[in-house]
Structure formats: C-alpha cells, structure tokens
TrEMBL record, chain B:
The keyword Ubl conjugation does not apply. Residues 76-274 form the ABC transporter domain. It comes from the Bacteria. Keywords: ATP-binding, Nucleotide-binding. InterPro entries: AAA+_ATPase, ABC_transporter-like_ATP-bd, P-loop_NTPase. This is ABC transporter domain-containing protein. It comes from Asanoa siamensis.
Length: 226, 274
C-alpha cells in the first residue's frame, strides 16, 4: 500500500517526471559528440543522480505523514521498504529507455555490464537519496549534499582511493570494464562496491527511520499497536 | 486580508454577537497568536470574521452537554510529564487521566505546551520525565500537516485504513461516511488543492478511521466554518457516546462546560486532571 501510494504521488508530479527523464539525456548528449564511451559513464551517473533526487523528495514529502502512519499501525520497515519498492520500480522504468538508447547508439561495448551498472544504480541511488532525506530534514541541505557527491564523483580520479568512498564509484569502475574492455577485475571490484554500498545505505536508512519513528520509551501501549 | 484588519473585524463581530469582553479578548488574542505562529492568512485559517464570531457566540450559548454517565476503564494515563527545550521547561509534572467515554480538553495560552503534551501522549515527542499508558489503539489529528499533498482523500482513507487492518473498500466507505458528518463530500481533488478547512476535515476523518480507542486531536477545527465547527463537536460527542476517550487541544474556553475533564496548562506549565 505504501509503495502504491508513493507511485501514485510520484506519477502526479508530471513536471518532476519530465525532468527526471531529461536530466540523464542531457548528461548523455553532453559528451556524445567527442567521446562516446564517456557519454555512457555520464548517463549512468545522471540516472543515479535523478533517482537519488527523486528519493530525496519522496522522503521529504512523506516526513509529516509518517508519524501518523506509524501510529496507524505500520511498522517502520514497512514504511521505508514501501518507499524503496516504488523508487526501485521507478528506477527500472527510467533506466530501460536509456539502455535501449545505448544498444542502438553505441557499438563495441559490453552491454551486459552496462545493464549491471544501471541495475546497481536503480538499487543504490534511491537508497542514497532516502538516506540523505532521513538524515537531513530540509530539502535544500539534501540537494546540496547530492550536488556535492555527484560533483566529486565527476572530479575525483576514479583510480584514487578517496573516490572509492563515494556511493557511485562502482559506476565508473564497471563502466571502464564495459567501455574500455579492461580485465574482469574492474567488473568484480565495481560489483562488490555497489553491493557493499547498497547494504550500508540500507542500514543507514533503517537506523535513521528507526530512530525518527521510534516509540518513545515513556509510552506503554496496552492492547493496542506496537 | 491583513491580520490586523481581520482581528479588528473579529473583535467587532464578537461584540455584535454578544460575546463578553473577557472572552472576546481571549479569543482574539488566541487567534492572533495562531496567525503569528502559523503564518497563515486569517481567511484561510479561520474564515470570514463574522462566521467565526458567530461560531464562537453559538458555542457560548449552546447547551451544556457534559454527561453524568459513569466513565469506563482508563484509556489514557499520563503521569508527571516533564518536557524541556534547552533550558526552558515547557511542561512540569503534568498528569492527565481519561477514561473510555470521556472528553478531555487541554487548554492554555500559546506556548504553554498543549501540542507538545499531545505529542508526548501519542509517543511522537519524547518526554524528559514521566510516563504515558495508552490502552488500545490511537488516532491522532495534528494541528497541521499529516496529509500527503498529491494523494486524494480516498487514497488517504485506504492508506490509513490499511495500517489499521481495514480493507481498502471498507476504509474508503467509512471515510466518506465520516466526511459526510462534517458536511464534506470527498471527490477526486488532491489534498494540495483542498482549502485549509477541508484539509483539516480530512485530517479529522483520518484520525477517526478504524474506530481507535483513544483520539488525540490538536486544535483540529482550524479553518472550519461555523457549521462545521459545530459538526466537529457533535462528532466528538458521538465518539464519547461510543465509548472512545477523546483529548482535544483547544483554546476556545467556552467549550469547557461540555467536556468531562479539563487540563489547564496556563498556570506555571503544570497541571493535573483526572
């Protein structure tokens, strides 16, 4: 029910949906002229940024409703997993056209690896956006954090150790494997990074939601909802 | 309409409706405080001055409806609640007991901790000391917020109903029935397109969905027109008659003769009511 209502809310923000769809395209076209491979890296990053932003706003919009939902009987994990389910579905719908675009527009790249980048983006980006919204109550602060992370992701040398602490580093690593046909080590490292990032972010989301929506210890409910 | 003009018009209308100067002064001060705190436009928050004054006057002259029926078991017991924000103590040793079939009013000036106390009772706000016992399920109506901008009323009913184990169709039917009691027919409009008063009706309906045992209502009548304001109190009494325990945060002291328990937080941020 939470996932369905999140999808309904998101579907009604038509302007936001259009921007979500167009933003990765802008990233793609920005480098298509001079470096086809780079345009793939950028579109994957653009998709992740768009999904993280969508998650940030979904999380912020639900903030005032969630205490009431909690009181109505929902468990905390039902609330954040419901939001995530909706965002993951949105992510698949958003990424699919771009995968088709790459299939049609790009040659001599490892398509399966690109699909893995996109799937990891669908998994990780909503978790990142929701984690930011759970930790930072105001949209502006959250947006600045997202901007900072994506900016750093573009600026930092992916071979450097600092960049590995960024949530979308896997995208650059698997991208190198897919575009430059490097060894499978790149793919393995990227896959491991994406999986670990997803698990860590899920833990952050669970803890942040759990703290914010916790039943305060001074309250004892007898015969009601926990 | 600017706040000062609206408040001056309200003062005149209250006098015109025969409301005494003390009560009129209190109502105007409370309205001014609410407008200052919320930043809302007065027409959006309270409606036209004459309508709001008529509602106040009507409730002053209304019948005393407190019952002599014996109260049921305890539904809410808050004991020695203390809350501080930094160095400022908002609540100190506040206690309240409400039984099934009782209506309790929490009153006090702006900033006296009424909403904080209700949040503590709901478990949404932490307390620095004291404890709260809730017997049964809880419905909560916040003073503002509590709805999703892009969802329709029926979708709100389905969402809240699902949390309480009510099937979708039944929840939507129940919501529509409760809305009708407040003279509102929910349509396809999203919550962001509803007026302030209608949005509060939605809030109130959501609080009552699934028939919770305890209802915690934080000034739920903001923006109600006169008729709806009276409908609201009738709904409260229906809940009471159905054996619910109802706690209403209110600044309209004229309603106090119609409730069973009064907790006044004005005096020194502490109070005991049972």
């Amino acid at each position: 029910m939470v996932a369905e209502m999140t999808l309904r809310e998101t579907a009604r923000r038509r302007g936001v949906l259009v921007l979500l769809l167009v933003l990765p395209l802008a990233f793609y076209l920005a480098r298509r002229g001079d470096h086809l491979g780079q345009s793939i890296r950028f579109v994957c990053l653009g998709l992740s940024w768009a999904l993280a932003t969508a998650a940030l706003f979904v999380g912020s919009a639900a903030r005032s409703l969630e205490p009431r939902l909690r009181l109505s009987g929902y468990r905390t994990h039902q609330l954040f997993l419901g939001r995530l389910l909706a965002l993951w579905a949105l992510g698949v719908a958003l990424s699919a056209p771009y995968f088709v675009l790459i299939l049609v527009d790009q040659q001599n790249v490892r398509y399966a690896a690109i699909a893995v980048i996109m799937l990891l983006g669908v998994l990780v980006a909503p978790l990142f956006g929701l984690a930011v919204s759970a930790l930072l109550p105001r949209d502006l602060e959250g947006m600045l954090v997202l901007l900072m992370v994506v900016g750093l992701q573009m600026i930092l040398d992916p071979a450097g150790s600092a960049s590995r602490f960024l949530p979308f580093w896997y995208s650059r690593e698997i991208g190198t494997y897919a575009i430059d046909h490097t060894s499978a080590d790149y793919f393995d490292r990227g896959l491991l990074h994406g999986a670990v990032t997803a698990v860590l972010l899920l833990a952050v989301v669970a803890v942040a939601f759990g703290i914010r929506l916790r039943r305060r210890p001074h309250v004892r409910i007898v015969g009601g909802l926990s | 309409m600017r706040h000062e003009i609206w408040l001056a018009a309200l003062t005149d209308e209250l006098r015109r409706h025969g409301v005494g100067p003390d009560l009129a002064g209190h109502v105007v001060a409370e309205a001014a405080g609410h407008l200052r705190d919320s930043g809302e436009a007065p027409l959006r928050a309270f409606g036209p001055p004459d309508t709001y004054a008529a509602a106040v006057a009507d409730s002053v002259g209304g019948p005393a409806l407190a019952r002599s029926v014996p109260a049921g078991p305890v539904r809410l017991r808050a004991v020695d609640i203390t809350k501080r924000y930094g160095r400022r103590t908002v609540l100190s040793g506040v206690s309240l007991t409400v039984h099934a079939g009782q209506v309790a009013a929490v009153v006090g000036a702006n900033g006296s901790g009424k909403s904080t106390f209700l949040g503590i009772c709901a478990g949404l706000v932490g307390a620095d000391a004291g404890r709260v016992e809730l017997h049964g399920t809880v419905g909560y109506c916040p003073q503002a917020g509590g709805t999703a901008d892009f969802l329709q009323a029926g979708e709100h009913f389905a969402l809240i109903g699902a949390g309480r184990g009510v099937p979708r169709e039944a929840a939507v039917r129940d919501g529509a029935r409760r809305a009708a009691a407040l003279d509102w027919a929910p349509g396809d409009a999203q919550a962001r397109h509803l007026s302030g008063g209608t949005r509060q009706k939605l809030n109130l309906v959501l609080a009552g969905l699934g028939d919770p045992d305890v209802l915690l209502l934080d000034e739920p009548y903001q923006g109600f027109d006169r008729g709806t304001y009276l409908d609201f109190w009738h709904e409260v009494w229906r809940w009471r008659d159905a054996g619910r325990a109802v706690v209403v945060v209110t600044h309209l002291l004229n309603q106090l003769d119609r409730v069973d328990v009064v907790l006044d937080l004005s005096a020194g941020s502490s109070g005991v009511a049972a």
